[in-house]
Every structure is written in C-alpha cells, then in structure tokens.
Amino acid sequence: MNFCIFCGNKLMGNEVFCPKCGKRLDNIHIEVPVKKLIQDELKDIKKSSLNEEKEFVNEKNTLKDKTKNHIVKEIQNITRDSLIEDKEMSVLTDEQEKVEKLQNTTIEEKKDEFKDYIVKKGQNTVESTLNKKGSIQTSRDDKVSPFSNIKNDKPKNIDKVDNLMMDSSIKKSSDTGRLSTNTRIYLGKRLTGNKKIYWEYGNPQLPNKHMLVTGKSGQGKTYFLQTIMWELSKNKVSSLVIDYTDSYLNNELDDDFKKKMGKKLKEVIVYQEKLPINPFKIQKRFLPGLVLTETPEDMVDRIIEVLDFIFHLGIQQKSLARRIMLKGYKNNPTDYTLTQFKEQLLETNSGENVYSRMSVLLDRDPFTYQSSFDWSKVFNYEGTVTILQMVQYQRQIQNTMIEFLLWDLFYHSQTKKDGTIYPIFLDEIQNLNFSSSSPTVKILREGRKFGWSGIFATQAMSSIKGEVDALYNAAEQIHFLPPEDQVSSLAGYIAPNAKEKNIFEARLTRLKKGQCIMSGPILDTDLDTKNLINTNKMISIDSFENR
C-alpha cells in the first residue's frame, strides 16, 4: 500500500495526483516501513543528542570541580611549605641566639684565665715586632708617593694608599701566583637545614666570576658586599671598590669589617689625588696570535663615545668635538689633556656650545695623565681592599672617571697572563653605561678570559639602560627583597620553569633583611666530585662575628 509523500494520504493505485492535496506524485511513493524507519531514526538521533549534551555538561562540571580542587590543593601545599620554612627560620634564629649567647659567655669566662699568660708570653715578641715594623715604616716614608696629598688625620681603621705607585721591582708578597681551584667564598647558610652555601670561586667549571646583587635599599646589600670583600681577602685575593655613592666612606663601613681588615683596608681620595691614568693613552688589544694597537682615530672615537653617553652631545656637537680633539692630539700627542681640549673649544667657532655641555668636567680636569700607573700594586695577592673614593665630585665627573678607569684596567688585564684576578665592586650600577660598546659590557662578555670578576649591585634592574642581558650572564646572582614592581619579572627569570614562577614570587616577597635567594652553581654534594650544578637556595647572610 502506498501513501502520498507530501500529506501521507492513502493511495488506492498508481495515481498521478494525490486526491487529497492535489500534488503531482510522478510515481514517487514511500513505503510505510521506510517512512516509519526514518521517523524512528530521527527520534533516536534527537534522543542521542540530548543524552550527549547532558553528558558533556556533566563532564564539564566534573572537570571544573577537579581543577578547582587541584588549585586549592596547590595553594595549600605552597602555604604549608611557607609555614614550615617560616617556622624553621624562627627556630633557627632562636637557636642561633642561644649559641651566640653561650659562645659569648664562654669567652668572658675564659678571658681573665688566659689574659695574664698571653701578655707575659707575648710581651717580648710584641716589642720586637713593633721595633721591626717601625724600621720598615721609616724606610717606606723615605719613598716619594704620588698620593702624598692625603691628609695625615686619616680616617680611623683605613690606611692611605702610599705605595700603589712604588718601584715596580717590588714583588708580590704571595707565592701562589694563581688562584687555587679549591678557593671557595662563603656566602651564608640555608634558611632550612643550616647548610653553608659557597661561591665556588676557583672551580674551573664556573662559567665566569661575575656576581649580580639586587634588592631595594635597606635589605643588606652593602653589608653583604663587605662580607664578600673580607672572604676574598682571607683567600689572598685583592679587590678594588669604586665608590661613587658614598656608601663606602669610613663612617659608613661596618665596624667589624674594618677591624677584621685592619691595614689591608686602603683608601684613595681621588678629589685630593686626582686619578692617575691618562685617557688619551694609545691602548693595545691582545688577540690570539695578534696584537692590535689603537690609532689616534680609534682612541679619540673611544673617548668621544664616553663623553657623548654622559653629556648627551648632539650629532653636530659630537662631530665637532671629535674633529677638534683629534687635531689637538696629533699636534701634541705626548702631553695632550682635557684642559687643552677646553682651550681649543673656546678658540673655535661653535666650540663654546660643546664646551658648555661639558664645562663641569673640563673646568675640573680630574686626571693626572700618568700613563705608567701599575695596576699590579692594587691586585697584589695580599688580600687588600682598595677603596677608590670619588666623594666631592659631581656625578657626571664621577661617571667619566669610572668609564676611563675601566677602559684602562680592561686593556691592562689583556697584557697580563699570570693568572691575576681582578675583582671590581660597582654599586648602584644603574648610573653606568651598558651600551654594547661600553667597558662594563666588555667586562661582562669578554672579561672571563682576562681574570675579571665584576661584582655589580643595583636596586632595580628596570632602571638600567642598554645591554641588561649581559648582567644576567653573571654566573652568581644574589637577590634580596626587590621593589614590588620588580617581583614578577625577577621571579620569571630565576624560576627553573614557568610553573614555578608563582612559588618564587612568594619566596621573594617573604625575604627579610639579611636574607636572599642565591641563584648559581654549587657543588653537587650527592656525588664525591667537583661537579657544579645550577640551583636556587634561600640563604641568610652571616654576620662578621660568625665568620
């Protein structure tokens, strides 16, 4: 039996038109079983779609609940770890105070017992030593010093540098010659476990000996840097501090640091002495199998780049300054100075504009133009700390001196192949030049080959202009509590992966004064080897009393 495909009317035969709806059938019929099958299929499809939609909603809700539970669990774990660390830190602090109290008590109890013995036993030796020292000092005073203008009423606990320029025949007092591969610089103890953490300074696997120290003011950066100076000194490694922030004046230094250093702590007041280098010295660069000597044009270009960075010369002013300086140097290559450069500018059309830009420097020429300054008297394997104090000079003059000083020392380091190490402490480095052609970037990227050990400190990495990535190449990094706007970027850099960024953000914000995150290579203590592994540890900086 057939039905109309349009209205479903029952058909008696092979009608051409449906008697009910009147539509032409053209022999197109549909059997009842087929129609029913289609209808049933449509019902099944609809029912299946509803079921699938319901299942999808259920799965979505289940996944949401699981995700929520996972996040809650992770937060609980982080919070639990933080509470554990804080609790352990509190316990460690209490224990440390008890130990210090016990040690002090023991010392006081035993002091009187040994006092008489020590005085009696050592009296003759002390007198003999003082007599010998007096004779040695007398012979030293007979020598002529280029730093003779330092006042006699020198700051307490700091010796003036009266022997940096002594005769070059004086040999280094140490027979070590090279840094020992076992040299380790103590940094501090882990907040959990109380394990000592070291900067593996002499390990040949260390990528470089540079250190980056960050953290906002008042968190212990300057104190920490003094502990590093002392640790280097204990290992007979001499270092240079270039102080243009007044942070290392005598009254700003820690008393315990000054006592421990004694006469190994030396100070040069540049304002009284002037800087004993010649910016116009033709330098040499030593490459494998090749020595490149600067031309006058190379030297002048190097100087103009420094002046341009500090005084922001315009294109025409820069070109005029270069032309005048090159002409003046070629006319008087042995005795050319910034004072002569100033006179040339004032005698040249349009030169007054260039002079007005740099008058603060040109009117106070801070150099002695001494080309034979011997840096080996500063880096002498005696464990001295020389503070080059730039107090009293304006910031632009200070920055100019630093740039030329670093260039001079950088070229000097290339001439030596005796394993000398050059630890240089530079604080508040956001004021320095970090362009690709600057001495700071040269030191960071090439200094390893010549024994450089730059220790760079700053409050905020974001304020540094230029090749900031070069600083992050420092193998050893110490991060104290950062400014709030620096937490996220700093955590993103030191975290091993993106998943742990939040954890390091929490760790950074929890740091207290004297606490920091050490990021760098340490010895793999799980194996009896000298292999280094990169890691991040939260540490506390020990006081000088506990070192």
Word description of this protein:
With 547 residues, the chain is an alpha/beta fold. Helices cover 44% and strands 14% of the residues. The strands form 3 sheets. A 12-stranded mixed beta sheet has the order 4-9-12-8-13-14-7-15-16-17-5-6. Strands 2-1-3 form a 3-stranded antiparallel beta sheet. The relative contact order is 0.12.
Structural class: alpha/beta
Radius of gyration: 37 Å
Record field, number of beta strands: 17
Strand content: 5-15%
The major β-sheet equals: 12 strands, mixed
Order of helices and strands: EEEHEEEEHEHEHEEHHHHEHEHEHEHHEE
Contiguous low-pLDDT stretches (5 residues minimum) are: 27-33, 102-156, 159-176
Strand order of the largest sheet: 4-9-12-8-13-14-7-15-16-17-5-6
| Global shape | elongated
| Mean pLDDT over the residues | 80
Secondary structure tally, helices: 13
Termini distance?
Answer: 108 Å
Helix content: 40-55%
Give the tags.
17 strands; alpha/beta; single chain; 14% strand; twelve-stranded mixed sheet; 547 residues; 13 helices
